[in-house]
Amino acid sequence: MAKKQTNGNGAGASGERIAIVTGLRTPFAKQGTAYRDLSALDLGKLVVSELLARAELDPREVGMCVYGQVVPSLSAPNIAREIVLGTGMPKDIEAFSVSRACATSFQSMTSAAEAMLAGQHTVAVTGGADSASDVPIAVSKPLANALVEAAKAKSLPDKLRIFAKLSPRDLVPVPPALKEPTTGLTMGESAEKMAREGGIAREEQDAFAHRSHTRAAKAWADGVFAEEVMHVVPAPRYDRPIAEDNLVRKDSALEGYSKLKPVFDRKYGTVTAGNSSPLTDGASALLLMTESKAKALGYTPLGYLKAWAYAALDPGGWMLMGPSYATPLALDHAGLRLKDMDLVDMHEAFAAQILCNKQAFSSKKFAEEKLGRPEAIGEIDEAKFNVHGGSIAIGHPFAATGARMVTTALRELKRRGGRYGLATACAAGGLGAAVILEVDA
Ligand SMILES: CC(C)(COP(=O)(O)OP(=O)(O)OC[C@H]1O[C@@H](n2cnc3c(N)ncnc32)[C@H](O)[C@@H]1OP(=O)(O)O)[C@@H](O)C(=O)NCCC(=O)NCCS
Q: What is the dihedral sign for C-alpha 396, 399, 403, 409?
């Protein structure tokens, strides 16, 4: 049972709401493609510069920047501050970086909201960026020790003696671990475990992934994403502009999915490249203001952040169940029920994870046993669920996903005349995030 959580209410003591004035993202690109030569920081700077330009905001109005990155950068560990310094914003804008795995840009948004509700700032830039193409490659522990020792050695022969102790194996580079340190399982292996124990069939997973691609392709074709996705002309050649996500399959065919081999349990598994979110590069950003500041500057916000919650569960269990733990807390905080939501957007780490969470939402047994609540969270209405696809099709640059979901959900709420939306994500370490968004009629 999730006992310790963090949650917040978007209306502070003053009754001031946190306005999400606008949001923007880069197109998302498969690892090693359009943004092969760009870092997360490069992508973050591109999107924040464009966000400010489109908002026609005097950057001197910005009080703080909270930005996130999941894959660590050795050269720019505080990406938020580098974004301030690299986008022409005044240098006296304070900034800090956050990481909450796949929920990172929910965290950057709510951290900024907390500062604003505490009266510290009235305008903030938030978001997140990740590059799966630009991952830090580490050296082995023996080589790292030898380098440190050699740096202190007095003479060249001493240095050579230190390196002579290394074996060829010690020289092999170490890629970043995608495994949970506590369980030793990758995300994909956790999804396999959930599919197996939850009885989620391969066909159901494939059908869900096909739904995601079909919906995202339609959204692109219908112009739904046009205003929330900028165009990028990637360095260093500046000759191949990218205007759309390059992972969305415009010709998704259900038969194609069944041919793919499982990747995380090659013998008995059901999780494949087709029904997983792919490794992706991209960035997103949000412009937040207190409601009164937005009004004073003449903005009509996309909507408001009504409430939020984070929760945690044992990663050794069903690691990707975060939405089922965080959502009821955020709903409580907003004083709302799932049936009040006009839209539900859940981060699609894997189709198996989505289907397990959907089951849990509608299960009284799950509510009683895992949440200590008498009633199920509620049945998710298909007509309101991930209506424009999700991370399986669009891609998942870890830190950029939350802000993508918030922007799309708010625009869609406006489009369909809805009032409330839920955006929720699972995250590494058994974490969950949920935010309740509100749009004025
Ligand atoms: C699953 C994963 C290992 C696949 O990586 P990959 O093998 O590089 O994936 P690819 O995109 O190259 O796809 C492999 C093949 O499947 C095919 N494929 C993928 N999706 C398909 C689909 N929907 N329909 C038909 N074919 C598809 C690709 O075309 C490719 O075929 P090819 O080998 O003939 O080119 C990788 O995406 C991954 O690790 N994802 C999980 C990321 C993660 O952990 N996220 C955290 C979640 S919070």
A: positive
